[in-house]
Amino acid sequence: MQDVVLQIENLTKKFSAKQSPGRALRNALFPSRAILDRSFVAVDDVSLKLSRGEVVGIIGHNGAGKSTLLKMISGVVPPTSGTVKIQGRVSAMLELGSAINPEYSGIENIYYYGAVLGIDRKTMKSLEEKIIEFADIGQHINRPVKFYSSGMKARLSFAIVTSINPDILIVDEILSVGDAAFSAKSAARMRELIGSGAAALIVSHSVATMTSLCDRVVWLDEGKVVMNGPPSEVITQYSATMMMSSAARKQHLLDLISTDKSTPKAAAPSGKTEKKGISEKEAARSEPPPAMIVNNGGASIEAVEIVDEKGRPTRQLSSGQHYTIKITAATERVINDLSIGLSIRTRNGDVLGGQIYKLKNRKAPGTVNVACSFLNPIVTGHYYLTCDIRSDNRKNIHHIIDLVTPFTVLSPPKNCVGQIDFNLSWSVENDQVAKVS
Fold it and tell me: Which SUPFAM superfamilies match (predicted)?
């Protein structure tokens, strides 16, 4: 069992808003409409362990308590109650530019951050070249940070924070402001730190980031832990719940919090399987994630399958071949403006593409079979289908099934990159060779 580098127990943070003199006077004059308590609980009795070499993601809607939790762990905000036990050095990127002083230049900020952490100047000097190279912001490194763009601040902050080889790295959504190339480089740097024994807590709204980097995901709602478990399972439940009606979502959250789903699975905290020496995260990627199901009634998706040109069901497709997706839907009552949505997703949950098909008004309960044919442009990889049925100009959700019908695409070797083969047709329109005198 790996060392626990972070342990928080029953952590709670309550914020109280002081009343203005005007509010106090209104409360005294109109006691029946008085606002007596404007306090709120941002984080409510949260307990969590983080082991060396483990990455834990935190998800939740805006205001769920994610940032407040990270600030308490980092020591920026004191908890109202509960304990935080840390073994080792913590590097945190809580807000854009939080690790740097805007009045200082990029170079000066390297030493400023080191001083904040109690690291001597000689050590930071030895890291200077490495930080400058990773940040890759050119001559701007000598200019005050207050003139930097958001992307440049993110580059400098991440380069400085990760240079000191922390025991715990905390990142709060900051990498979303960087460009794609830097995001990829940052993810690689995080994997390098984790591989050397660091642990990480990250907040992100990116499904791809959560599934590719995290061993576990914690879902917060109104400061409470709703679920704590494998990324695919938690993200699936979270996405499904966010699509429910307000009343259904509230009851579903209460059910989840009150069940044992809010505790981690029995797997070892290290996320490793000792027998084969592979991580639980890698093993999970070889299995289809569970289907996300939103069922508000009225209509439903009964079946989804892929067939080849001969009508045979298949889960192994080839690029450049014709296929048909068959969908069976059912209605329980008369529903107008009904439509079926279909999309293809990658294993990380990213949408490659899709389409919406409008059905005729349903005059009576029953079933309907629809089919869509396509010439497969997708290249080698593992994919899934998402299918839904809605009404009222797509505003009313009846049924959604996500990450179902897993299929694999095999492509012949071609000179194409990415996930889509556009089957481009090339030609030379003008080829002039300079005459040699």
Answer: P-loop containing nucleoside triphosphate hydrolases
